[in-house]
Design goal:
Strand order of the largest sheet: 3-6-8-9-10
Distance between the termini: 27 Å
Low-confidence stretches: none
Number of strands: 10
Strand content: 25-35%
Shape: globular
Helix content: 25-40%
Largest sheet: 5 strands, mixed
């Protein structure tokens, strides 16, 4: 995984880049990990295809169990949050940052940080983590 780390105060150009990404809608998968900004590129179309297929497959059963499905959302608070690809909630979400979810779904992409998020999700009371891997055509669940 390629990473860029800037030690000390970030130069103004970094804030400008983040704001430009926000204005262009390119920050959907960006996350903040304990104050560190993790800038994620948009996913490959294969990622989106798997995300859409999973959503279509589990939508009915999830709703039948009283869960509300969503696309990408923020788990945590503005200073520390992760963005799973899909979520299932016990009640319809009403805020931008959610404290937890019944289920989070992550679709693997190259250079992503899916497995590094597990402790965060556990600490936020997520009941189940589903990970889909387009490369191996597998779906695994942890609860």
């Amino acid at each position: 995984m390629a990473a860029t780390v800037i030690l000390g105060p970030a130069p103004p150009e970094v804030a400008e880049l983040i704001e430009r990404r926000r204005a262009l809608g390119q920050d959907l998968y960006d996350e903040v990990w304990e104050g560190e900004y993790h800038m994620a590129p948009g996913p490959h179309p294969a990622h989106g295809a798997v995300q859409f297929a999973l959503a279509a497959l589990v939508d009915g059963p999830a709703r039948a169990r009283g869960l509300t499905p969503t696309g990408p959302f923020n788990v945590g608070d503005p200073t520390d949050f992760r963005v799973p690809d899909l979520g299932f909630h016990r009640a319809p979400p009403t805020t931008l940052f959610l404290p937890s979810a019944a289920v989070v779904v992550e679709v693997l992409s190259s250079d992503d940080e899916t497995f590094r998020k597990f402790d965060f999700y556990a600490g936020h009371g997520v009941d189940e983590i589903v990970v889909a891997d387009p490369a191996t055509r597998t779906v695994r669940c942890w609860w």
